[in-house]
Amino acid sequence: MTTRIEETRSSTGKTTELSEDLLLDMYKRMVTIRKFEEAVHDVYSRGVMPGLAHLYIGMEAVAVGVCVTLKGTDTITSTHRGHGHLLAKGGDPQRMFAELLGKKSGYNHGKGGSMHIVDMSLGILGANGVVGGGLGIATGAALSAKLTGAERVSVAFFGDGALNEGIYYEVSNMAALFKLPVIYVMENNQYGEYTPSNKSTAGTGPARAEAMGIPAMTVDGNDVLAVYRAALWAAERARTGEGPSFIECQTYRWLGHHMGDQGDTYGYRNSDEIERWKKKGPIKRLKAYLLKEKDIRVEVLEEIDQKVQMEIDNAVEYAKSALQADRSEVFQDVYA
Ligand SMILES: Cc1ncc(C[n+]2csc(CCOP(=O)(O)OP(=O)(O)O)c2C)c(N)n1
Ligand SMILES: [Mg+2]
User: Fold this and answer.
1) Is 167 in the pocket of ligand 1 (CB under 6 A)?
2) Domain annotation for the chain: domains and CATH numbers
3) Tens digits of per-residue pLDDT, 51-102?
4) CA distance 50 to 44
5) DSSP characters for 265-286?
6) Most CB atoms within 10 A, among 155, 287, 288, 298?
7) Average pLDDT of the residues in 265-273
8) What is the DSSP letter of 255?
């Protein structure tokens, strides 16, 4: 049976009272992702950005709820929809934007683009254009931690679509067998490209994990506090040698699958559904909690919004004026 978060809390005996600093940190990280993605939408729409962009708007609570529980030395692997994970783990908006615009000072010297950003110094083992690819890398990182005795937790973010990739079954079997310190975070945003997940997936992610003996839970992925508690539970299991855990986060992407899927291009979702999910959006929800339950003044949140907006505007300006890589460098830092 899938564990529910309330049971987990009572079984560990912890009812974590979260500090105001931590709550505001979560808010800031979520707003950073939102504003970064809005800027990508804007720049892409003007035809300034090459390649593809899959935006994370609406799903911010998943990346943030998980990453605030991680240490700098812990690692994550990300997906094609990766900007949110990278920013939540501390990625630099300037170097990210420079990468998106193909500039020399970007994370990959402008050669990777949106789906291949890596920052080993922050434990970001890479976004990944191959659906399911990050699952193998994250499990490998967990195996390495176990073999070398490094106290490191490895997180794999992946989508509901990736759940049906064969690699998931190979790596989760291995992770369960070897009790690897890995957390599988399934972002169930209800669709893989233009197909609803209930038309492509039999049963559920947690049931599949449990079939391998991996404890699993489903949480409201638009509630950053629920994601945070689930991630704490899973990270604690990983750190104490209990092995892998699986967290399904129920969420929704507000925009199209990628920037080429605008509005109702492919007619696979209706506006009622999108509006319903927007009403329970993750930032709005945390904001309401902070104002009503925590008595935080609205000015405090507005100041965060403004500071983040300035940081993102600066990142865009920086990236626009940064140098393009020279033609002579085209074969540097790539495998041939
Ligand atoms: C191995 C592989 N197969 C197919 C694709 C094409 N593709 C890109 S994104 C995507 C859907 C992924 O859905 P999901 O895992 O739910 O992630 P989401 O886009 O919903 O965040 C597909 C099929 C790919 N990039 N890699
Ligand atoms: Mg999906």
Assistant:
1) no
2) 17-318 (3.40.50.970)
3) 999 999 999 999 999 999 999 999 999 999 999 999 999 999 999 999 999 9
4) 8
5) TT--S-HHHHHHHHHT-HHHHH
6) 155
7) 88
8) S
